[in-house]
Amino acid sequence: MGLVYTVFVPHPPILVPEIGQGEERKCQASLDAYREISSRLVRADVETVILVSPHAPLAKDGITFSTEEVVQGNFAQFGAAHLSFSFACDARALSQFQKDLSGVIPMQRSLDHGALVPLYFLKKAGWNGKVVLFGMPLEGPEEYGRRMGQILDKLPGRYALVASGDLSHRLKADGPYGFDSAGPEFDQAVLRALQRDPKKLLGLSIDLVERAGECGYRSLRLALAAKEGAPEVLSYEGPFGVGYLVAELYHSSPLPLWARRCLKSYLNNEDSSLLRFPDSSEFAERRGCFVTLKQKGQLRGCIGTTEPWQENLALEIQHNALAAGTQDPRFRPVQAEELATITFTVDVLGELEKIGGPDDLDPWRYGVVVRQGRKSGLLLPHLEGVDTVSDQISIAKQKAGISSEEAVELWRFEVKRHYE
Q1: Of 325, 317, 329, 262, which Cα lies nearest the Cα of 294?
Q2: Is the pLDDT confidence value at 18 over 80?
Q3: What is the pTM of this model?
């Protein structure tokens, strides 16, 4: 199955109630989010956690990893030696990393607090799988993230990537490193990027990052590069002068997997009646949806419906998957041998809502439909390169064959994007 879940979490030991002794309640938003994201990981049936910590031994070049058959450690440094943990290492995954990941540097070591805090909450949520422990790379986190995602997707197990790190340590004068205006500026820039366009994280100046005094910027970038997803910020706060961010970065969804199966069956001339329909409740609702195909990051087909035409979402996805693969007039039909190089996403649309004007739009939150008589054009939200409302409306008008000067009715809708 491969990589099915990716998260970014903080690691202040004070969040652990046995250490915080009540002080952890000042971080209640982080506590609640940590427990929620740990429960989600458990529900994703994750067998092995790949944990990237900025407090493991780091190397100027390359990436360090633990070679211990059992990784273990405790919170003795924080006055709680009785909180001790041990996890078996996933030998198969470790062997694959050693074989296919360049620049790996083996080490023998115990669990640091950057790993212990996430593992504490996972254990509390009922998770008890295997672990592979990496140190955060100081250079090239995106390349390491991409390669780790590719390696995991070739393995048969179910893996999660847990990136550990805190944001700025300079949010308050009475914080551990004092105050610097770069601290809140950096943290807000990270939040905006996750909520809109994660690629903008790469545009942060080196000076801003260094002045912010963070310890999770590179592990976050690594995790984002491992698998494309729709980041969800569960919580952010900084009560002690350090920024604590809990975010889900990616989770695998059955919707695009079903779209892939439908198109594959069609291209291989299989009897569609033999397809086993998904029995999950999310497939039973009636919704419009778009199926998008990409090949090496470039659009390869996209067809959808703004309102449901089929009796359930499973059939809606099936119809649109076949159309995206074989009927998009902008592209030649997809061939069966191409499927291994194509990624699928499914956008499930909310209800259309008529609006009074452009002020009610946000190209990152809402899709738009423009209408004039029988002409209609639609543009999905959160598209790379579409940063302004005017761009969004202009492109939708072009798709409808409406000139830029003509007045139109505007409708908006929200979308939930699902990734393989």
Answers
A1: 325
A2: yes
A3: 0.90
